[in-house]
Amino acid sequence: MVHSMIRKLLIANRGEIACRIIRTARAMGIRTVAVYSDADAGALHVRRADEAVHIGPAPARESYLLGDRIIAAAKASGADAIHPGYGFLSENAAFAEQVIASGLTWVGPNPGSILAMGLKDAAKRLMQAAGVPTTPGYLGDDQSPARLHAEADAIGYPVLIKAVAGGGGKGMRRVEASAEFSEALDSCRREAAASFGDDRVLLEKYILSPRHIEVQVFGDKLGNIVHLFERDCSLQRRHQKVIEEAPAPGMDAATRAALCATAVKAAAAVDYVGAGTIEFIADASEGLRADRIWFMEMNTRLQVEHPVTEEITGVDLVEWQLLVAGGAPLPRTQDELEIRGWAMEARLYAEDPSKGFLPSIGRLERFSLGDAHRIDTGVEQGAEISPWYDPMIAKVISHGATREEARRSLAASLTDAVIWPLKTNAGFLVRALEHPAFVAGTLDTGLIGREGEALLPAAQPSEAVLAAAAGRLASGHGLRGFRLNAPAVTEASFLLNGVAVRAGLGTNTGAGGERSALVTEAGQAWQLTPWRVAGGGGGGAADGAIIAPMPGRIIALFVAEGEAVAKGQRLLTLEAMKMEHSLVAPFDGVVTGLIAVAGGQTSEGVTLARIERPPEVKASEA
What we know:
By secondary structure, this protein is of the alpha+beta class. The protein is built from 17 helices and 35 strands. It has an 8-stranded antiparallel sheet, with helices on both faces.
């Protein structure tokens, strides 16, 4: 086969993965064409590409999911190849066929391979025929409730009901007992029909100590297939991967050899070309054993977590994709591939863990990450996180000689993150990385679900951070009320999310005078605005004051004058700068001096209410 080098590449995607592909293409001397929606006109991937083509309005179904428009953009720009990235049209066999029929090079697997692995039940039948072990379950055509119930009883509970066309954790139900099956089946089918237009299901034995382990495979058009070892993606929240690593902890050489050989056999069964991932579910109740690891599904595209494989093998997987798409043989043989050290990746999202991980949208006024080994991102400081697409800000990747070295490096990078004013999951990621089960490598897919609240970041900085901030600001004479010959300042109060907090002065003083300071701790960021200083043994004048941190409208009021409240209880919600800010009680007490009114406007610095400490607490502090 003649090797045909790609000259100009259109990237049918956006954000982080588009920037990632552009980086490799440029290094290979390939010109790039970006596509963009109205929402992405000023996006980083648009500015980094050699040229860009507008393809429609913000909703993905009117832009990034329109295959005809993307192919037209490729033709108009003179591109000779299309890379789909991941998500959007990357696993759409009809789009792949359309690209090929248009005379363009498709940077991905054959449409037949995508089709064969697209439906979970058909893929499992195919794997069973190829001798690949699959999880015990039912894949039959008889979809009657009675047959499904009988099969579930035969498999044994707990059992998992999964939508045949499912993905992203949708159309999936765990059933603990026979009596619960019918209701769970109905619920699963309704969700599957609404999400995928297909209410068919399959049944699987539910694994009690599950590990999610996947193998990176790669094939060329000459029939060669290799594996690039395994990744562990067991740390998940609601079936969405949170932190991935390579290799898998606890994997011995014999089990790795058997697992990776199985993955190559699975890829060969569909004549696979390009980058793909064979996903397995492992029962780790007795450690990782080859006879307790089963095929789950195949992703016929590049994975979000591909950087950890690149880091331990020294391979640029995007470069391999572009070479193989042009007809070149795989750059390395299996014997030339080896594992070097350990790598981890964390998915950093603009989301608020304290509010059920709801997306946090708006402008990234501050955006810097720690001294990370590698950062793959599609945004920069000043960018807007829009409501139209996935709110991932970046992938933070570490590499070390050992797992512990990689873990510590990743945790340090996230700890030093400074992102404002959007909320992020950085603090949540740090806590997950420092959880004893993760440190020990004994995690499973249920870890986050079990730990829940324990992994949520703190509501406010520690006393040590507040004290250091008090010292730094006070030393610069920038606090309100400062005057020459005043008594020695021993305490300062700050506005923290609109609530006054007190802090004794720390010793970490430096250049001051700022009107406010952004402080970070364990990946979380807070804005502190100086409010009062006090000398001698006096208490902070603003202790318990609930103060508007900025001008805005009070959209909800949750308490009344005289009402007893607990520390952390939500008092009101202020809408400002297109974002909602909840003000909470700084300690247990009673609401007094309430002037906030639902629907009313407020100015910055207005005391909206005060929380009075109980009399016995006041007496003990006197």
